Every structure is written in structure tokens, then in C-alpha cells.
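Incident review: delayed structure delivery

Summary: a single-chain prediction request sat in the queue longer than the usual turnaround. Root cause was a stuck worker, restarted by the on-call engineer. No data loss occurred. The affected request and its eventual output are reproduced below so the record is complete for anyone auditing the incident later.

Affected input:
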Amino acid sequence: MLDARQLRYIQAVAEELHFGRAAARLRIAQPALSRQIQQIEADLGTMLFARTQRRVELTPAGELMLDRARSILNEIEQAEIDAKRAGKGELGRLSVGFIHSSSYGFLPRLLRRFHDRFPEVNLELKEMGIAEQINSLPLGAIDIGVTRPAKYASGIETLPVLEEDFLVAVPAFNPLASVKSTSLARLTNESFVLFPRETSPLFNTSIITMCENAGFSPIVSQKATQVHTVVGLVSAGMGVAIVPSTARNLQISGVAFLKIEDEPPPVTIVLAWKANRVTTHMKAFMSIAVSAAREIQGLPNDN
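Output delivered after worker restart:
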């Protein structure tokens, strides 16, 4: 079986059609090159070159071999380049799970920056709730999750990247829409559009807790899982809601967003991954995520 070195010998002689020039190009002695070509022809059982004292010509077998040699050597060279690039995280595949609310601002910025830097990495994006990511990460169904703090299985690591304040969303015709901020206590008698505990346990628990800390339990008129649906129901006059600040990016008309004077704890976006299978792509994704989050928060970047 021919190896890459022998293919380079064939290519050099076939392109130069002169053993002396081919030997100089390969930086080997001409007699050694002649012996190598003779041995290749003997192993193949056919002549690749027709030689006379004045010229060297390709035989039909030689023309075919030159074409194949070029193709194979180009593939080998490209494989070496691609292997080096893959080692640097510039090639390959990365499967990313993401919560829907991250797509309102943080995720698009992160994906744009990652794609600009690693355009040949195939990003496989999967919209998943927190519970689905909790189940998928240990199985390797996704490489990394853009998610929220939760109780993850042993061996799953998380990295907080972005904190979002909660805001109150009110219909434009609600008297509260004329102010820029409100205490939670002023919402005591308002009807709420609330995230359900079954599908959004973090938001549900956080909102109920902050209301109870303000001295009341929210009156729930409607429930919805997705932030855009909650804000849409507020716009329709179905009640008020407490939502993450990223909801402003939805630009749904008929809604005013108010700062919460009580300053409840923010909600966090975290990255989650299986600790024993961190790839170069994942490291790059994490670094870019941190950088994108700092930009959103108006913080200086170290990288």
C-alpha cells in the first residue's frame, strides 16, 4: 500500500517531468528518487513514467496516479489543518439547550459572537425547560445548557453568567402605568398572571415568596409558562405580572414595566454541563457567554 511519502514522490516527478528537478524539490538525491519510483512501479506492476535520455512522460497509469495522488495529499493536508482547528475549538459540533426566556436578549448575542468566532462549528440548538435540561445533561443529550439555578444531578457543574432583576408588568390603562416604580404592597388587590409551579417552579416560587414577604398572597387570574405569553396577557388586561427584566426586549405594546422598590433577589441565567466531558468548544462557549453577559450588564470585559 502506498504511503503519503511515496505519493509525494510520484506527484513531484509527474509535475516536473524531470527527475533532477523533482529530487531538488523533494530535497533528496536523484538516484534515491529514481530507486523509489522504480520500487513503486514494481509494487504496482505497471509503469507510471516513460523514460528516455531526453525526457520523462506520464503513462496513462501515471496520469491517473497523479490525479489520485493530488486528491489524497490534499485530503491529508486538509485533515491535518482541520485536526489542529478542531483542537482549538474552531471545528466540530456543539449541542446547546436553552430556556425560552434567554432568547429575548442574552442568547442571540451569545450565538452571534460564537458564530463569528467559530463559523464552522455546527451549533445544534434545543429549546428546553429547566426540568428537561436537568434530565438531558446527565445523559449527554446536550453538551451545555443555558438555564436557571436548580437541583442538578451529581457531576453537573453550573456557572452563573447573568443576573436579571424582576419587574412589574402592568396594562397601559392601569393607574400604575403612569409611575416608574412601585412597591409590591401596592399590588395587593391586583389580579396576577402567574407562571405555573408545574412548568416554571423557579419563577413561581420566587414571585410568590416576594409577594408574601410584602404581606400578601397574589390573586391569580391567569397562568402561562412563557414570558412572552405572560406579557401578552398583561397587555390584554388579564392582570399584572412579575417578570424578568429581559421581557422589555419583547416590545409588546400596551404594557408598562415598573421597577420594584422592594428590590427582590434577581433571577440568574446559568450555564450547566457535565463535568467529565468538557470540550474545547464548550470552554470557548462559556468564555463567550461570560463576555456577552458582561456587555449586557455594562461591565468591562477582561478578554
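Verification: The mean pLDDT is 92.
Action items: add queue-age alerting; document worker restart procedure.
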